[in-house]
Structures are given as structure tokens and as C-alpha cells.
Amino acid sequence: xxxxxxxxxxxxxxxCNQKLLxxxxxxxxxxxxxxxxxxxxxxxxASVCNVVLPVSAMWLAMTAxxxxxxxxxFMFPFVFFAAFQIVLLHLFGNSVIAVDMFLNLVTTNAMxxxxxxxxxxxxxxxxxxxxxxxxxxxxxxxxxxPLEESFRQLNRKCALAGCxxxxxxxxxxxxxxxxxxxxxDLYPLxxxxxxxxxxxxxxxxxxxxxxxxxxxxxxxxxxxxxAAEIHVLLIGETxxxxxxxxxxxxxxxxxxxxxxxxxVVFSDVMSQSxxxxxxxxxxxxxxxxxxxxxxxxxxxxxxxFKEAGYSTAFYSNQRPNRSFIDFFAQEAHEYxxxxxxxxxxxxxxxxxxxxxxxxxxxxxxxxxKFIVLHTYGSHFDYxxxxxxxxxxxxxxxxxxxxxxxxxxxxxxxxNTIRATDEFICRVIEMVEAEGVQSTVTYxxxxxxDIYDDERNLFLHASPLPSMHQLRVPFMVWxxxxxxxxxxxxxxxxxxxxxxxxxxxxxxxxxxxxxxxIETPYLRESRALSSESYKSEPRMYLxxxxxxxxxxxxxx
Length: 555
Known about the structure:
This protein has 22 helices and 15 strands. It is α/β, with parallel strands linked by helices. The protein has two domains: 2-204, no CATH class; 208-553, 3-Layer(aba) Sandwich (Alkaline Phosphatase, subunit A), CATH 3.40.720. The strands form five sheets. The chain has a seven-stranded mixed beta sheet with strand order 3-11-8-2-7-5-6, sandwiched between helices. A two-stranded antiparallel ribbon has the order 1-13. A two-stranded parallel ribbon has the order 4-12.
């Protein structure tokens, strides 16, 4: 109670000075613009405009009331944007709040948020120290004498002059720089634009069942209906290929995969997205970065297998999040999100999926089966993704996610890769024991930054990706019985192993082709199991769902 009284007294004393509060509020709103001046790669005039015009506009807005606290409280959305922006700059080093960041707010579960916040508390503490006292102070200030009218008029004139200069700079940007767009380059206008796009996409996602209701793949099997087949698609999470020993990593992270017979490893693979909520739906459907908006009207690979007469199942070690992943899962004959019934305090490793797979293989008597397993893989907080008894690299528990603790973070991350190594091989072992024509396809949705260079980037889903976020593992295992029946498929997989691959572009066509499913949506030139496979220019699906050549990103 004593501490609370002291804080209240301090706030009352500080907010009696309305002029000081006015200045501090303007400065707090200007902080993101100042930081972005140094972080964004823009022409100098655009960088200056990004400070002068928005700061002057917010400065002018603060003069709307003789009580600055009242104006600041009305500007709460911009206070929220500012706090959010500073945290993201701490994480990613550059770029404004993206559309995907807003969508992550409604698709990320509480456990992931808690794990992240616990490891970036310095940035969180900073925004709390800056913005919470000002919000509280604004409330207290409502009960004190208002600003002098002369002070308000002086600041209004200065702010109007700044706005005039900012508009002139904006006109210069459009006249001299062809690619300049205020909705992309002017904070907080770009953030407001992104928030609007996020709301629109969220609405379209909500209408998905209506817009895709009549879709069909017109799929049918070209195989003998009496021949038993099992095809498994393993979707990894946040695994980057450079940390797999089987990809040349110096650490022993994949001892079991390296000893696995029948495995074809694709050496040059890149994802088309560094976000789960985009990459996984592209993995599970016929859409790619080039035609991503078709996803609102199409169904997933699960439906293609169902149409072809397969029994289907989807099991996930992630929580449902009202995204396409959930919708596609519901297409299966049976589906389960393991974490849906657990509290945030309960943490389970991907091993739980092995039990579900084993039970399904024993219980389902269908001759043809297709199973999708969606793992939690290497998602941060890394040390929570595997049992403590599997901590091969130590120490593996960092108190904070910082560049100084990279070695510890890397130990934990590499332990997740070893856990993935064992998981993949145990799935293969289960499927192989069935003694039928079978395939197991594994790939990760995207990679991860772990303070790998002087940029000090961390995690994934940054508005501008790095190569660490895009290079992913992709491998296919085929059984001896499958190779005996379809040697041409095995041969094509091996021939294409060193070809450049866009994972999201190839996986649907590869899985469908290996299963002998005929559909107008199959393009053999994108199937790694086909002699007709052709490498295409690799594309990246940016924050505005535009397909951008990766070569143009200058990564």
C-alpha cells in the first residue's frame, strides 16, 4: 500500500505540469518514427518525411484539447501502435508492423505469447516504462488546471508549419522516387493500412466454408484399389536445413536420418513464406505464392485423397487458431489438435503424435491411408519442445533471448532438431512395419533467425525475411515395396534431389503424384517424383500477399 501511495503521489505531482506532460506525450508518439529513420532502407528524403510529417500531425492532434491527457487518451490506438512497433524493432531490427503481425495477434495462442514475452522482457519493460506512466498520468491530468491557451496556440502554429513541410517532402518523394507509396513507407499510415488489410483477410477467412463449399479436385486413383498404400505428410515447424547434420551441419543433429535407407534428401529448398499461417496452407493445398488468393476458394490435399478413395487423418501438436490449418484439418475423416484440450501450463512433445499414428494404423482397416502430422518442431521457446532427458547439447536454458546467449539458444535449437530426427525415423519405422507401398514426406514450414550475424535477427515472420528463415529441409522416404512397384518414381526423386526447389510449390504435386492420383490440379512439372519436374524462379509471398522473386529481395 505504501508503494502504491508513493506512485500515486508522484503521478499527481508530475501531471500537475501540463506543459511537461504535453511534451512527453508528443515525444513518446514520435519514438517509432525516430527509430525507423535509422532502421529502414529508404531514400533520405523519404526517411526525413517519415519523421517530419507524422510527428507534426500527431503534435497538431495533441493541441486539440487544453488538457493534453485527454488528447493522448483519445490517441490510444497510436500509443498501442508505438509500443507494438518498438517491441518488433527489438525483435527484427527493421520494418513496420506487418499485416501478418496483426493476424498473429488472433492466431497465436497464449502459451506462445507467454514464452516469447518471458524472453524479450527488456523490450517489454521499455514500453511499459515509457507508455504506462503516460497513460496513467493522462488520467490524473484531467483533474488539474488546463494548458494556457497561449502555449497551445504556439504549438499549433509550429505543428502546422511542420505539417506543411511534411506535405512538401511527401510530394517530393512521389515526384522523385517511382516506387514510393505512402501506404507502404509512411508510419503510422502504413500500419493503419496493414491493420485494414488484416481485418479484410480475417473476414475472408471467416467466410471460407461458404466460398469453398462447391470446390472439387475431380480426383481419382490410377492404382489398383486392392493394393494397400500408406502416404504420410509430416509438416515440421521452424526447422531450418542448415542445422541438420544430413545437410552438412558440423554438429551431430541427425544421426538416425543419416543411417536411414530409402531416404531422398533435397539439398536446395526454400520456403515461399516465413510465417506458419501462410506456409502450412500452401503446403497442404495446390496454391502457391503465385496464386495465393485462390486459397479462399479451394480445399486441401486431404480432400484430393478423400476423393481418390483414401481414408484420411490429421493430427497436430499445435493449438487450433481459426486459420486455414484448422479448416483443412476438418476435411479429414478424423482429426485432432492435441493441445486443444490442455491448459497452457501443460506442455507435450511431438512424441504424442506417434501414439496417435500407431493407433490409427492399427485401428483403420482401409486399404489406402493418407495421414498428415503437424508437429511443434523447433518453435520458440526451444527448450520446451523436447523432454529434458533429450538435452544432448548443454547448457540449453537461457534466461533471456539475447545475442550474448546465442550459444545457449543454439544448443536448445539443435536439441529440437535431434528430437525431429528421432521423430521422423520413428514414423518411418511404423509405416515400414506395415509392409505395404508407402511414402513419408517431411518438410518444414519455414526456418528461423538465431542471432546469426551482425543484424542480430531473431525468430521468424519478420516483414523482410532472411535466408535463415527461408531455407528449409525437404526429404522423402519410400518403402522397398513402393520402390519395387514404382521404380520410376524413386529414380525421379533421386534425379531431382539437387534441383532448386520451392517447397510450397512442389509438395502438393509431389505427394499427389507419388500416390498415383489423377486430378486437373496436378502439374507434373512441379512434382519431384516426376521426370518432367522443372525448376521455376523462386518466389516469396510478401506481407501484402504479393508474389515477389526471391532474387529481388537482396537477402
